[in-house]
């Protein structure tokens, strides 16, 4: 479910879906806007499997679990400082 397997195509895995969600989250967005953009992107690419809203929410849960996104007043944002703070490196903007 998290990683692709023999029976789970890469584009259905939560790892791939999470990466796709992060790529769409270049700016803060509502969950609805992010869902709509993901649907539009997937419709344009027939190679990708259809993603249900439940699977999309699991992808968001996966990202929350990894602490890569956060919710701020109903808006989703990337949590850019996570990796930098944990590694002890200085943040470069």
Note the main attributes of this structure.
single chain, 93 residues, Arc Repressor Mutant, subunit A, globular
Q: What does this protein look like?
A:
- By secondary structure, the chain is mostly helical.
- It has one domain: Arc Repressor Mutant, subunit A (Orthogonal Bundle), CATH 1.10.10.
- The protein is 48% helix and 9% strand.
- The chain is built from 4 helices and 2 strands; from the N terminus they run H-H-H-E-E-H.
- It has a two-stranded antiparallel ribbon.
- The model has no long low-confidence stretch (mean pLDDT 82).
* Beta strands, count: 2
Amount of beta strand: 5-15%
- Gross morphology is globular
DSSP helical segment count: 4
Tell me the helix content.
40-55%
Series of H and E elements:
HHHEEH
Q: Which stretches are poorly predicted, pLDDT < 50 over at least 5 residues?
A: none
Quickly give the structural class.
mainly alpha
The CATH topology is Arc Repressor Mutant, subunit A
What is the multimeric organization of the chains shown? single chain
């Amino acid at each position: 479910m998290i990683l692709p397997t023999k029976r789970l195509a890469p584009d259905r895995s939560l790892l791939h879906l999470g990466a796709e969600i992060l790529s769409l989250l270049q700016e803060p967005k509502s969950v609805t806007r992010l869902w709509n953009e993901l649907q539009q992107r997937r419709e344009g690419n027939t190679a990708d499997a259809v993603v249900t809203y439940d699977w999309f929410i699991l992808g968001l849960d996966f990202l929350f679990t990894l602490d890569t996104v956060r919710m701020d007043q109903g808006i989703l944002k990337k949590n850019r400082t996570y990796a930098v703070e944990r590694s002890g490196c200085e943040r470069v903007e």
